[in-house]
Specification:
By secondary structure, this protein is α/β, with parallel strands linked by helices. 41% of the residues lie in helices and 20% in strands.
Length: 566
Amino acid sequence: MDKRWVLKDEADTEIVSKLSAELNISPVLANILVQRGITSFEEARYFFRPGELHLHDPFLMADMEKAINRIDDAITQNQKILIYGDYDVDGTTAVALVYSFFSKRYSQIEYYIPDRYKEGYGISTQGINYAAEKGFSLIIALDCGIKSVDKIAYANTLGVDFIICDHHLPGDELPAAVAILDPKRPQCNYPYKELSGCGIGFKLIQAYAQIHEIPFEEVAEYVDLVAISIACDIVHITGENRVLAHLGLQKINASPCMGVKTLMDIAGKKCDYTIADVVFTLGPRINAAGRIDDAKHAVELLIACHEEDAREKGDRINLHNVERKGHDQQITDEALSMIDNDSVLVGRKSTVVFNENWHKGVIGIVASRLTEKYYRPTVVLTQSNGHIAGSARSVLGYDLYEALCGCSDLLIQFGGHKYAAGLTMQRENIQAFADKFEEVVSTTIPDELLIQQISIDAEIALTDIDSKFFRILNQFAPFGPENMAPVFLTKNVYVSGVAGLVGGKHLKMFVMQPGSASFSCIAFNQGDLLPQLNTGVPFDICYTIEENVWREQRSVQLNIKGIKLK
């Protein structure tokens, strides 16, 4: 599929040249900094040298004092505390972090993860009943709860208090909890709004440590878990999140907690982790526990203290991940075949597919795969608990949640955000929903959004890529949403060495320009272009620049995002 190449507008030249001179960096890199909102020497120093001093005071968050006071009361009065969290990576890392910190200081504490299939997302009546029956007076809810108005009201009738630590947008009414920690809530002046659920948990233990004069090092022990949550929950890697991701990656690569180290060993990659490595190597394994079995197994691994115990838990989770991959591949193949063999589906601007036997735990992954392939808003449906459950994904720039609002009369419930959502409906509404969703999408999506876009930061020559350029570029990391790895455009390059295929479909080659060095390149899933690249004809490339590590040898590699032949 052809992609649109869009070159970003250049930033203010006066600011760029001033920053370039002050930082002694190339105008190209200074221009990218300004494009990203970094316009002064001080802001650049913060950006290039993130550290613990850049973390905000946790007591700037509304209700933090109330939360700490309620925890202190619970501990003083020997009340039982339940740490409650969602079943995804953000929720399980958050529970592991808060439970690990407090269980070292207080024994009357347990954790609870709702069952994905029996209880669903968020605070459940079953979870509240469990707390009441077992005599828990306080629940600390992580990565959920901001919209659980009715559930919290019910808990209050049973004498169970809640502290909510959430990062999702609140509804019109806030729950009647003892404390609500959520930077997105009204009247919260916390300076950074994009923390993960685990990040909110981190601010809670940071606040507790401040009040009780516990050294910051004992809080920083858990920053690897925060980095994993930031990477896998796809939150912005800006501001405080970037600081936490930077510190967390350092810990992952130097001294990860026992559970994380075990996962790294099992995955076969033991060092040099980036955000992307966390997303593709650690995240799927942690997530697989809740998709295939029970997410509490992920927490058990992440809080493990002994190597033998961690290895046993890690192997179990890895088996779940292998099973998950099997479901994922099988369902993706079936869905692709369904679309390819249906002329109506092929011609639509949206995709809706259904099979009652598909595994609910992986339909979100399948929806992402179908969106990659056909590049249009996609919903994958299966049967679950007597209803039809669905997972939806969107394309860049199109508001999926708004599209689902246009179909709400056919849905029992739905929730999510611009690019990902979940939904349930009655079985008899499947076809009506597919038609209505297509009608809404086709009348609201501009045609250009159905062509994948490559956003290019700057045009450069290969001679611009020297060791200093590469060294400074590496300091733009960690990369992720709102701070993606810069994409460069270089025109008129030639194949300078043998071009061939890796893994049957990935293009491996060397390119150069007159007067430049020869650069090793990898172009994933672009092997079909190989026959056209050996002719000595110049072509254009857009790419990111990365370090390739092969048998302990490090070299600069261009990761090709697109090739335009002349």
